[in-house]
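Meet the record:
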Amino acid sequence: MDTDLRHDLATAGDGSSQPAPVRFTTKIAVLLRDDLLDWQRLNVTAFLVSGIAATNPELVGEPYADADGHGYLPMFRQPVLVFAGSHQTLASSFARAGGRGLAMSIFTSDLFATGNDRDNRAAVRAVPRDDLDLVGLALHGPRNAVDKALKGARMHP
């Protein structure tokens, strides 16, 4: 069975024939700076989770199909939780995630002025780690480690 989730294939604890809910041992989380415009929040979230999907293909499920047989792209097999926090919360979470060895994707304010991947990477490469103007980050890792890294962040409204 997949090491990323636990699923009780027996009946739920209430005796019904419904399977028990899936409990994931890992968490996918996005933390956004709370002063972003709506379009920026959506854009940053989309970019950040693409890094998680690209480096963790086991997190992506099977393709979807409707009753008519039309196919659709697969998606993450587990929820993506989105949090918000101040500039300081983001900086603290970034430091804690790095200290815990969690892989992360980042989005800096400079990336709003670029238009392609090459320029995005150059914009990040031009700034020392401690001077990055982070507007978002995405993490995937053990639930407890991600929770500790995001201490002080709140669920996005």
In short: Residues 3 and 25 are 8 Å apart (CA to CA). Helices lie at 38-55, 87-99, 117-125, 143-149.
